[in-house]
Design brief:
The complex is a heterodimer of chains A (129) and B (255).
Chain A (H helix, E strand, L loop, with lengths): L1 H25 L8 H14 L9 H12 L1 H10 L3 H5 L3 H34 L4
Chain B lengths: L1 H11 L1 H24 L5 H20 L12 H6 L2 H11 L5 H6 L1 H25 L5 H12 L3 H9 L3 H25 L8 H11 L2 H11 L4 H31 L1
The chains are: A mainly alpha (129), B mainly alpha (255).
Amino acid sequence: MIVYGVGILAFCMLTGMFFGDLLGQIIGVKANVGGVGIAMLMLIVLSSLSSKKLQLGQLTQQGVTFWSAMYIPIVIAMASKQNVAAAVSSGWLAVIAGVGAVALSFAMIPVLTKLAQRSKQGESDGTDP
Amino acid sequence: MIIETLQAVMIKNSIITAFVFVAVVMWVSYWLSDRLTRGRVHGSAIAIAVGLLLAYVGGVFGGGSKGIADIPMLTGVGILGGAMFRDFAIVATAFGADLESLRKAGWVGAMSVILGVVISFIVGALVAVLFGYTDAVSITTIGAGAATYIVGPVTGTALGAESDVIALSVAAGLVKSVLVMIGTPFVAKSIGLDNPLSAMIYGGLMGTTSGVAGGLAATDPKLVPYGAMTATFYTGVGCLLAPSLLFMMVRFFTD
């Protein structure tokens, strides 16, 4: 049944949010720490369990893949409700701070990626001093 | 009479109206992508840009803070595009993601989150200093805003910042998230954003959930789960570091 998939997805999200909120309280911040990430991990583990007993049925999977396919439409709705007017009219300080942060972060991506790949090669060689 | 009835129906069924709204925006955008750019600029990238443009128009004419969703007939867009459905759909994208590549990139992902918060914070703080702020609380709040528009106000409230400074920090975060949404597909190639590893680093460095969600959707939807995974820890880490460690760092320099 399709709704089983939707139910599993919803259960993962609620569980993730629950632990994310708890984690936030434990470390003393007013934010959900990694709730979505925890939910995603649960779903990934669930979907990669290859034992036949736990294999999700075709229709059950559709309950999840439908929402996965709704991701882009939802993101477009999300873009449409952003406070763009405030971002544009906020003056130079906000614009420069935002642009600077994005530009520098973009520039760091290839650096970190290369670093990660190199360290991984070192590990697999196992001969590096 | 006809128009009033139509309006009433659209308002009463707001989320259904939002489905039609998004479908029309997407249809127009994919048509534009096909005709004007021969598919070179992806349809979803155009759709996100159209969404942001409509949000701007809605904000200017409606005067609210929720973009096009401030128009009574389109309040459903605000619900569909709100955190609840956004996070639900993000979680769904994880279905079928590769556990192995996530595990391999684990520590790089964690590092990129911390580095991402610190980099954005430093940029924001430096700009604040450049614009004449000298007190540690304001500098920290604006720096935190450059991380995300949630870290900014959370930090500002914790430190007791002025409300106009908090507003500025929110604006800096908004600029960042809008820019990440629009900019990502254009720089994706030159920064090597085409595999799970770099997507996780991207999510960790950028951190704005909406920016990363939009940016990856417009670049390659297959990368969404990897970027979203790390980005989801960013705001929490930011709220942890900014009012504590980073604030002490700023105070060290300003005193």
